[in-house]
Amino acid sequence: MAIVHISAPAGILSQDFEVGASPAPVDVSAVPRLSTCEAFESPSGDVSTGTWEASPGSFRRAIMDSEFSHFLAGRATFVTDEGQSFEFRAGDAAYFPPFSRGLWTIHETLRKTYCIWK
Which of 1, 46, 48, 75 could form a disulfide with 41 if both were Cys (CB 3.0 to 4.6 A apart)? Predict the structure, then answer.
């Protein structure tokens, strides 16, 4: 496997992202636009990496695999189903263990690089 270099992910143009399916609405909050610019997916589908963006709104976390993220822009809150709250801003990083469930609230368009693995 070759090295995957995601060059200047903060500068990727919005039109270069692939828009994903809209998440289910959460109460009366806006439904965010979720989009991805994938850099790599292993042939088995066990590992993927790229850049992800979400516009303001709220949605439940859909990825149930392990994930490491580095936040490049924006601001968001993630509240786990157990009630633990995390504030994420540009420059922050996070590891989400498998089956991390909770609610995202995107306050300012959020952009992150990610690595997801099974």
Answer: 48
